[in-house]
Write a structure and sequence with these properties.
Number of helices: 8
Low-confidence stretches: none
Mean pLDDT: 93
Number of domains: 1
Structural class: alpha/beta
Strand content: 25-35%
CATH topology: Metallo-beta-lactamase, Chain A
Order of helices and strands: EEEEHEHHEHHHEEEEEHEEH
Bound molecules: zinc ion
Helix content: 25-40%
Largest sheet: 7 strands, mixed
CATH architecture: 4-Layer Sandwich
Length: 236
């Protein structure tokens, strides 16, 4: 049985269906569901079982939102799209990477990782390739409504970790933030990789400017608004 994580005031429920290499979420409103990110090959069967459970309960997957084109978020995207006939949404800055099966720029945020990612960028890109998949919608707007998918939510451009990273703001209460923050330690939300750290902190400000009370990252646990505000003040 799947565990509901949290439900908003308008009864939209966010389920975490996978953890491990990359958290994967299903956002459900009545019979409409959207999938957020897909994790890596090793988790495909587990993911498909979880999604089949929703389908057996009468849910229809209307969309697949990819927070950004890094391999650990997208390796199962072609399979999910094919099996459940979902429309794939990604930011326009990340589209061409997805179409070619490449991860967008991976840059470390501390001295050691910065050096490694700078010296070995080509090799990292080579090992982080995946099966290419065509997006259905390349999002260019700063805010993009998902009302047409049956979910009161919007996509918010939150660049920094990568140029085209985006978050999903659900019912103005819950945000799924991809790698815009890291949830492995509440004392440090700053991720180990970011193409543009200044832009990343600006995106934290954008997330704070929503009314969201909970922020769900792709790695680790959700953090509260209070934690994000406190961490944001350290870097600004
Ligand atoms: Zn990433």
């Amino acid at each position: 049985m799947l565990n509901g994580i949290t439900t908003t005031k308008n009864r939209i429920t966010v389920y975490q269906v996978l953890k491990g290499r990359c958290n994967v979420f299903v956002v459900q409103n009545k019979k409409a569901c959207i999938l957020v990110d897909t994790s890596v090959s090793k988790y495909w069967n587990e993911l498909a079982d979880a999604l089949d459970n929703f389908v057996h309960q009468g849910c229809i997957f209307t969309g697949l939102v990819i927070t950004h084109s890094h391999f650990d978020h997208v390796i199962n995207a072609h399979l999910a799209k094919q099996k459940y006939k979902m429309k794939l949404y990604i930011r326009e800055e990340e589209s061409e990477f997805l179409c070619k099966g490449y991860s967008s720029d991976i840059r470390g945020t501390n001295a050691v990782l910065r050096r490694i990612t700078s010296v070995f960028q080509k090799q990292i890109q080579f090992f982080c390739r995946y099966k290419a998949v065509e997006p259905d919608i390349s999002v260019s707007e700063d805010k993009f409504s998902l009302d047409s998918l049956g979910i009161n939510a919007y996509l918010l451009h939150t660049p920094g970790h990568s140029t085209g990273s985006m978050s999903i703001i659900i019912d103005d209460e819950i945000a799924i933030v991809g790698d815009t923050m890291l949830g492995t330690s509440p004392e440090r939300l700053y991720p180990p990789f970011a193409a543009d750290p200044k832009l990343l902190f600006k995106s934290w400000g954008k997330l704070i400017n929503t009314n969201c009370r909970l922020f769900m990252p792709s790695h680790g646990r959700a953090c509260t608004r209070e934690t994000l505000v406190e961490q944001y003040s350290k870097y600004n």
